[in-house]
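Section 3.1: Structural characterization of target chains.
Under the original work plan, the team committed to producing a structural model for every single-chain target entering the pipeline before any wet-lab resources were allocated. The record below documents one such target. The sequence was received from the expression subgroup and is listed exactly as submitted; it comprises 334 residues.
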Amino acid sequence: MTDVDTASMTAWIAPRYGGGEVLRSEIVPRPTPGEREVVVRVRAASLCSGDLHLLTGTPYLLRLGFGLRRPKHPMIGQNLAGEVVAVGALVPEFAVSDRVFGEVPSGAFAEYARADVGCFAAVPASIGWEEAAAVPDSGMTALQGLRDIGKVGPGQRVLINGASGGVGSFAVQLAKVLGAHVTAVCSTRHIEMVRSIGADVVIDYTTDDFAASHLRYDAIFDLAGNRKLRDYLRALTPAGVYISSAAAPGDNWLGPVRWLASVVLANLFTRRTLKPLLMRPTPADLNYLATLVAEGTLRPVIQRRYPLTEAASAIAAFAEGHASGKTVLLALDD
C-alpha cells in the first residue's frame, strides 16, 4: 500500500440534521485506504439532491439507515474529482497521481476523501476538475434513465420535464446523443440555456401545458414530479415509457416513496411502461460520460462556483431550488 501522510485535514461536518446552518468546518484525521480503497485529494466537488436529503435527514425513512437522531456519517458530499494520493494493497486499477472522479457515499466536501475503488473512473487530461466533478450523480442518472429504462433510440420523441436542473441539463444532451428529438420543459428564465444545449423544442411551463397538446412522446423523463400521473399518461404514445426520478414529490416522512409506489402500481394497469429510476453508479457509465465530455459532445452546465470554504453557503443557495445546471465547490488552490 502506498502511504498517505496521517496529518489532519479540513472537512465539512454535519453534527446533526438540519440545513446549511448546521454545517461546520472541522479539523479531522486524514483518511488512509483499506485494501480495495482509494484516497483522493479533492480538487472539486459538486452538489446533488442526495446531499440535501442526507443533511436534512428527510424523508425521515432515510434515518433508519443513516442515523435516527444524528447522521452516522457526518462528513457530507458525494460527487468529486481529484488526484489519487494513496491506494490499497488490492487496487491495481489506479496509481498515485492519477486523475479520477466519481460518486462516493460521503466525505466529498473535504480536502481528502476515501472510498471503494469501484466508485471512481479516470478523468481524461482534457477535462477540467470542475467539469469532472459536475458529472457523476447527475450524468449517470440521466444516462440510466434514458438508455436503460427509456430505451431511447434514433427518431424517438422524448420529453424531459425539469430540463434545466442538474440531471435535466445532462438528459437533454444525452437524449440527443441517443438520436432522439427532444422537447424540454422548463421555466422562462432557463429557456435560452436549454436551447443552447440542444433541445429541439422548449416548452415554458409558466405559459404552456405539454399535457394539453396533441403531441405524444415515446418517452417522458420526469425530473420535476409536478403533475398528476394521468397527465403524463395522456402525453405518451400507446407504447410509450414514463421514467420517474427520485425528484418526485413527497412529504417529510416517506418522501418520494409514495409517488414511486403509485408509479409501480399504475404500471400494472396500462399498456404503457411506467418505471421509477434508482440510479446505480458504475465505473463503465462514468467512463462513457467522460469520453463524451472529452469529445465535446456533452457539456456539464455549471451554474455556480464556490470555494470549498463556502460549502455551507453553497448548500443554502442550492436548497432554494430552481437551479440551472450544477453547483460546484473548488479547492482553495484552484
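The radius of gyration is 20 Å.
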